[in-house]
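Risk register update: the risk of archive-format incompatibility is retired. Evidence:
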Amino acid sequence: MVCRHCVQAVKACLDELGVEYENVGLGIARLRTVPDAGLLDRIRCALKDNGFEIIDDAESRVIERAKHIVMQHVREENGRPHNLSECIERKLAMNYDTVSRLFSSKEGRTLEKYHIAQKVERVKELLQHGEYTLSEIADMVDYSSVAHLSRQFKNVTGMTPTDYLKGMRERRAINEV
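Archived output:
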């Protein structure tokens, strides 16, 4: 789960099945009781139908925690530690190289590429709000320059931030008609 909408979708799945839970948050759902095998299968199916899965092995839990750390790292504008590897090591109590190798083997892409993709997603969000200049966004998302942000944005999306904004305006105009 990566956003509040994901949390709501998981809650809806559990509610529909009559499963009582203590809480549902990003990447975690604590149930009040341990479900029997039949109910667990129904939970798995309901979650799968909504694009989710139960993470029940140690390596997958490490990867999910690493993803959440990256997302949190990208979205915390104030007081964000600038070194992702130190942040991951501190929060996971594991060597960054170990986490990185595990991530690459399970996800099929490097942790660094995942980090860049999350930064680009954050840039898209900030561009959509229209409240900040590209220079302010570059600073907020920890890019050394607007040129660096633009290069990575184009590498990931195939378009410049300006083209992305232009496309957003064009799409909005079509929907407003």
